[in-house]
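Supplementary notes for students who missed Thursday's class. We covered one full example, reproduced here. Read the sequence, then the structure, then the short commentary at the end.
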Amino acid sequence: MGRDTPVAIRLPAVVAGTASTLLVYRFASLVGGGPAAGLVAAVAFRLMPLTASESVAFTTDSLLILFWVLSAIFLYRAVVQEKREAWIGAGLALGLGLLSKYSMLIFLTWVVGAACAARARGGLRGHGRWVAAGAGLALLAFVPPLVWNARHDWASFWHVAANAGKPGHLGASGLATAGEFLGSQLGIVTPVLCCGIVWALVRCFRERSPTDVFLLWGVLPMFAMYVPASLIGRSEANWPAAAYIAGLAAFARHARPRLVAAALIAALPFTILAYDFDLVHGLGLGLKPKQDPTTRMRGWKELGLAVGTELAKLPVAARPFVLGDSYQSTAELAFYVPGRPRAYCADIGRRRCQYDYWPGFDRFLGRDAVYATEGDIPRPHHILRRAFQSYERAPTFVYTRRDREWRTFSVFVLHGFRGIEPPGYEDY
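Structure (token representation):
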């Protein structure tokens, strides 16, 4: 659209979501027996709160799901329909998925499992060269990230490993996090649809036709990884999102009309709330900020204006810059502060992030900065106090919503940057 507006930034999510919906229709039509199954899966896909949110907020999952379902279509044509040339499309789609999110590597369990099942029933004869060609395309697409990581201490892979949860111990706490993870699936998929998918997978296991076995391999390995991981660390609800592509296809393939109708109708209220959570507040339930999943998305525009006001007070000769202390807050400040000044992320004991691999502010000796952080604190972090000659506290910014204090940010004007000695990264 040629403009850096919120609509333009979120437009790729809308495009990816629309394309994913069409591909889900195609995939379910292939494995489910016709257009009716495709329509059921596509409508269910659009009604899941998970995919509803991913279609308006552009994240790595938006493209992951797109290329996951595209890869699934080609994989089905290759291993079930015995179309050897489909391995080329599967390899290309897999490579594009790997460029979107490293979780696409889990798709390899589907490839290996489905291929082994096909070989066990005497299939895939003469597919070797085509499989090699597809694998070569996927690897070729993944070469740039591999080269970059080899030059940067495999940072991306350590980051993914850290996200999987820190070592812990089994027990009450592990069962609690596992229960939280499994319970969250009811929320992002909706309860009736989630139960319908489980029922359909049981039918797949009982019937075990080539298509049913193929769909099982598209779901079970991912949960076999994430459920045990949730016992030793916190697992995010959206991690197994791609597994629901095969799950929805199984649901469309086996579910009876009454179950389909019940699942889709029951999902509708959840989807409406995913698009407009303010409706919940309209019910007068007295939700607290931590109970509102949209809280972290609110207040940034107003905070940007507050930071911009402090920047405007500083002399131009001071060439002030903007500081955040997390990649999320730094990105929001970079977008919402008037004039879009370049923002930098201070290392005050946080996890390593992308800002650490871009040019930093270490060369800005003598310059002033405006620093914003969430919470009401009397003074900036001691690392920043040592890094600047002096500081002054600007008025605390309070974001109000429905006449309630919703978020609080502290804003500081830092004078005379003299270099920073970060404590080192806490984690990846």
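Commentary. The CA atoms of residues 373 and 410 lie 5 Å apart. The longest strand covers residues 404-417. If anything here is unclear, bring it to office hours.
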